[in-house]
Design a protein that fits this description.
Elements: E1 2-7, H1 12-21, E2 28-35, H2 39-49, E3 53-56, H3 59-71, E4 77-80, H4 82-89, E5 96-99, H5 107-115, E6 119-122, H6 125-141, E7 145-148, H7 151-159, H8 162-165, E8 178-185, H9 203-207, H10 216-224, H11 226-238, E9 246-250, E10 256-262, E11 267-271, H12 277-285, H13 316-327, H14 329-347, H15 353-367, H16 375-396
Parallel strand pairs: 1-2, 1-5, 2-3, 3-4, 5-6, 6-7, 8-9
Antiparallel strand pairs: 8-10, 10-11
This protein binds NADPH dihydro-nicotinamide-adenine-dinucleotide phosphate (NDP) and magnesium ion.
């Protein structure tokens, strides 16, 4: 029986994780669930899965949860505050930690799990975008097992040789006969929308992803294709490769989840429904396989597959992220911070859809050559870049 902690249990990935775990009660037990503020949702999850611990970022929400659980005579112990999330991620009884908090807030609790050598299932891509080099060093130093949940990275991982998947120190791709990683993306909801109308994109239009059902922030990132940019940076660190080894390919059907091209001309791809419960089930059971609630693919029902290159004018954010990746960890931390501020401002209707790009561009230009090596540097730069971006939100208004 492996004990699982879910950071961000009430989110899209958290709920998908619980739906896979519910199918395998003999193999997995929920040790702890965490959320930020959503009391009712976490309460329902605690009553169903009876974890030993629950934690909420917001102390007031934690107090409400505690009272509600007491009224149900629940034995779940409730903790509060950001330190409690990190404490549960590092709990001695935790075998697997699902890192599914959205944004930079996921960095410290995820690192706490890495530092205890846990098996970390990484959905929180922003953690790697901010601290890739430091994060991967810690994974190695503390003997943690890092398994990608992001569907593209999970697909690439599945297409890599077993020697790479299980290596303590990840070898260079060229040593494994690999020529290139092909990172696929659907192109989001605006693949064929007239670019001249982007300034009037509404929040409802931006979060309506054609293939995937996800949280709000990643849905907006998919519309700008910043999501693919963050994934580009994520792939660079996860797979120990150079930016030149990664190519982004638009595949609007989202059935191929990414591919690996070998030097002999072979291309291996992982296919499946656009449903995160497949990569989650894969990583939970790795190196074995377990069932998931996902419907199998029916090839007689599939439309034609198509592929294209992402146009720079349509997806400038993708290219900003690629530029940041080449510049270094300071640039990626600052761009990630700017983008979180910009997306939040767009969702609350303070800025237009096209302002997300303007804000990210200005922020990246300002912080492009900043160095951020230690965790303290990264946290300080994240803070500074957010303040700079907030200032830009006010001037764009
Ligand atoms: P959601 O917005 O649906 O869920 C976010 C979760 O994090 C919720 O449980 C939320 O709690 C919690 N949370 C939010 N802010 C904080 C904070 N400051 N401190 C602690 N907890 C917090 O996000 P998703 O599930 O969509 O995404 C999670 C991560 O996974 C992101 O990094 C995303 O990029 C990545 N990912 C998601 C995919 C998807 O299909 N959704 C696919 C690939 C990657 P509460 O509910 O209380 O607010
Ligand atoms: Mg993805």
């Amino acid at each position: 029986m492996r004990q699982v902690v879910i950071l961000g249990a009430t989110g899209s990935i958290g709920c998908s994780t619980l739906s896979v775990l519910a199918m395998h009660p003999q193999q997995f037990k929920v040790l702890a669930l965490t959320a930020a503020t959503q009391v009712d949702k976490l309460l329902a999850q605690c009553l169903e899965f009876q974890p030993r611990f629950a934690a909420m970022l917001c102390p007031k929400a934690a107090a409400e949860l505690k009272a509600a659980l007491a009224s149900h005579a629940s034995a779940t112990e409730v903790l509060a505050g950001p330190d409690a999330l990190a404490e549960l991620a590092a709990h001695p009884d935790a075998d697997i930690v699902m890192a599914a908090i959205v944004g930079a807030a996921g960095l410290l609790p995820t690192l706490a799990a890495v530092e205890q050598g846990k098996t970390v299932l990484l959905a929180n891509k922003e953690a790697l975008v901010m601290s890739g080099e430091l994060f991967m060093d810690k994974v190695q130093r503390h003997g943690a097992t890092l398994l990608p949940i992001d569907s593209e990275h999970n697909a690439i991982f599945q297409c890599l040789p077993a020697a790479f998947q299980q290596a303590k120190q990840r070898p260079a791709l060229s040593e494994m006969g690999i020529a290139k990683l092909l990172l696929t993306g659907s192109g989001g909801p605006f693949l064929s929308r007239d670019i001249n109308t982007f300034a009037t994109v509404t929040v409802a239009e931006a979060v309506a992803h054609p293939n995937w059902s996800m949280g709000q922030k990643i849905s907006v990132d998919s519309a700008t294709m910043m999501n693919k940019g963050l994934e580009f940076i994520e792939a660079r660190w996860l797979f120990n490769c150079a930016p030149a080894d990664i190519e982004v390919v638009i595949h609007p059907q989202s059935i191929i989840h990414s591919m690996v091209q070998y030097t002999d001309g072979s291309v291996l791809a992982q296919l499946g429904q656009p449903d995160m419960r497949t990569p989650i089930a894969h990583a939970l059971a790795f190196p074995d396989r377990i069932s998931s609630p996902v419907q199998p693919l029916d090839f007689s029902q599939l439309a034609n597959f198509s592929f294209s290159k992402p146009e720079p004018e349509r997806y400038p954010n993708l290219y900003l992220a690629i530029a940041a990746c080449a510049a270094g960890q300071g640039a990626t931390t600052a761009l990630n911070a700017a983008n979180e501020v910009a997306v939040a401002a767009f969702i609350t209707e303070q800025i237009r859809f096209t302002d997300i790009t303007r804000l990210n561009e200005k922020c990246l230009a300002h912080f492009l050559n900043y160095a951020a090596r230690s965790l303290d540097d990264i946290v300080a730069l994240d803070f500074e870049a957010r303040a700079y971006a907030q200032q830009l939100v006010r001037t764009l208004n």
